[in-house]
């Protein structure tokens, strides 16, 4: 489905046409038997001059829905047309002239028309009914919700705060609006990650609001995923709690790509590398043009030792406009692991505060006489690194004992990044007693007993063992 064009005279109504498009996309995605490309991939083509067959090929679909929304005062005109990409012909088109108060009925009606037409043209596939979401009947609250959603997706602390204000205003108009509560919980939970605000305060607000959304609509997937992400970042909560919430979100909405991506990122800390790859492959199938999904999938392949695919999807993420350092970090590890050091230096040539130290480490790998200088620089790091954790840089230079000792000490202090130890460079040392010590200090055996063991570790009576070789065993 392509985003509907905003045909209104006021460009400020863009949020409304985008919102109507997304509502239709979600309605169709809930109809059993249909594979519907997710929002990020569909909206990738917004304002791009591409033909329908090309869109269908990129999204791996046969049928494409496009249309427009024109709003004037309390009047809304929605035009929709369903196209068969193989023949580039229209299967159905219709224009709906309604009052704004009828926008929910129009969305349901269009979705039903699409399903009916597809049933008439596709044999052998049972297509279910489009399922409506919990919705407000207050059109003003709905518009505030759509405006908030458009800002929340832009991220950045100002947009997040403004979106929270809009969701709160929507809730003031309709206190039972579950989806507004759900998105307000997302906004609250993001505040401490985009500002210096106290983490515990905002995570608690996110938790409280997500629980309210679940109370209003237990079948809504978003607040379950948000609650899982909040609990993942709250000290003292057993890992099996966010694990269960992530799985509940995916059970409620298998098409919810963000829940699968977040769950996979959570699993990166647990050693369940096969499951995290499976979640990311399913996310990519539904949202193949999302930069963050391609970047996460690259990490999934890296954790499973498939460097060729890791490189391919990281490069795709960058081509699609992935920001930050996530994709470059994957490529850096791939090139270091495969000893393509000049490529690693090229990746880290970008002007980013973390990359200067990364370049120093790569040069020390090439010339071991530079290791002492690099170690001193790592020891003096006094800022929060987005790129590799310092102990990972130490391991890259072959200083295995120093890296493992430092990781153990960090684990004792309740610090460290558990994602690091499951990556190929570290997993080769899984039989080292210090590797096992890190796992014990982090309480992973209790989580594994409750949810299933990692791909590299197994229970042995009252004890356990870890080995890279376990990955290849049934």
What does this protein structure show overall?
The strands form two sheets. A four-stranded mixed β-sheet has the order 1-2-3-4. A two-stranded antiparallel ribbon has the order 5-6. The chain has 23 helices and six strands. The protein is of the alpha+beta class. The model has no long low-confidence stretch (mean pLDDT 92). Helix content is 57%, strand content 9%. The chain folds into three domains: 117 residues, Rossmann fold, CATH 3.40.50; 114 residues, Alpha Horseshoe (Serine Threonine Protein Phosphatase 5, Tetratricopeptide repeat), CATH 1.25.40; 165 residues, Tetratricopeptide repeat domain (Serine Threonine Protein Phosphatase 5, Tetratricopeptide repeat). Helix 8 runs antiparallel to helix 9, helix 9 runs antiparallel to helix 10 and helix 10 packs antiparallel against helix 11.
The shape, in one word, is globular
Within CATH, the superfamily of the largest domain carries the name Tetratricopeptide repeat domain
The stretches of 5 or more residues where confidence is low (pLDDT under 50) are: none
Computed CA radius of gyration, to the nearest angstrom: 24 Å
How many individual domains?
3
Task: Note the gap between the termini.
Answer: 41 Å
Helix content class: 55-70%
Mean pLDDT: 92
Largest sheet: 4 strands, mixed
**Approximately how much beta-strand content do the residues carry?**
5-15%
Return the string of H and E elements: EHHHEEEHHHHHHHHHHHHHHHHHHHHEE
Strand element count: 6
């Amino acid at each position: 489905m392509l985003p509907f064009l905003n045909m209104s005279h006021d460009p400020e109504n863009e949020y409304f046409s985008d919102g109507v498009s997304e509502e239709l996309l979600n309605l169709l995605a809930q109809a059993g038997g249909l594979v519907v490309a997710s929002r990020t991939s569909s909206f990738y083509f917004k304002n791009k001059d591409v033909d329908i067959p090309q869109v269908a090929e990129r999204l791996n679909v046969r049928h494409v829905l496009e249309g427009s929304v024109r709003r004037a005062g309390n009047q809304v005109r929605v035009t929709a047309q369903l196209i068969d990409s193989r023949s580039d012909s229209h299967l159905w088109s219709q224009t709906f002239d309604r009052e704004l108060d009828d926008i929910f009925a129009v969305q349901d009606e269009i979705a039903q028309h699409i399903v009916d037409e597809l049933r008439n043209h596709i044999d052998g596939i049972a297509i279910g009914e489009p399922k409506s979401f919990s919705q407000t009947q207050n059109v003003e609250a709905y518009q505030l919700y759509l405006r908030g959603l458009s800002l929340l997706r832009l991220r950045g602390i100002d947009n997040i705060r403004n979106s929270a204000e809009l969701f709160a205003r929507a809730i003031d108009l309709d206190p039972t609006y579950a989806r507004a509560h759900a998105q307000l919980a997302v906004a609250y939970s993001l505040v401490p990650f985009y500002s210096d605000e106290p983490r515990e305060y905002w995570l608690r607000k996110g938790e409280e609001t997500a629980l309210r959304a679940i109370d209003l609509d237990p079948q809504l997937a978003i607040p379950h995923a948000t609650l899982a992400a909040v609990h993942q970042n709250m000290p003292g909560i057993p890992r099996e709690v966010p694990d269960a919430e992530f799985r509940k979100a995916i059970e409620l909405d298998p098409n919810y790509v963000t829940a699968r991506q977040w769950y996979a990122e959570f699993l990166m800390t647990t050693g369940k590398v096969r499951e995290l790859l499976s979640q990311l492959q399913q996310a990519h199938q539904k949202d193949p043009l999302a930069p963050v999904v391609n970047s996460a999938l690259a990490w999934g392949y890296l954790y499973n030792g498939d460097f060729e695919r890791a490189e391919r999807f990281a490069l795709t993420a960058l081509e699609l406009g992935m920001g930050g350092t996530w994709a470059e970090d994957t490529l850096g590890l791939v090139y270091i692991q495969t000893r393509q050091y000049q490529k690693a230096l090229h990746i880290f040539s970008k002007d980013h505060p973390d990359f200067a130290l990364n370049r120093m480490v790569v040069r020390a790998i090439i010339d071991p006489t530079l290791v002492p200088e690099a170690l001193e620089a790592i020891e003096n790091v006094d800022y929060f690194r987005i790129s590799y954790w310092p102990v990972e840089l130490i391991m890259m230079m072959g200083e295995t004992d120093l890296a493992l000792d430092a990781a153990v000490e960090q684990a004792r202090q309740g610090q460290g990044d558990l994602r690091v130890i499951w990556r190929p460079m570290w997993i080769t040392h899984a039989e080292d007693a210090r590797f096992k010590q890190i796992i014990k200090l982090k309480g992973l055996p209790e989580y594994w007993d409750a949810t299933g063991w990692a791909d590299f570790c197994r229970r042995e009576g009252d004890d356990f063992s870890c080995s890279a070789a376990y990955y290849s065993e049934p």
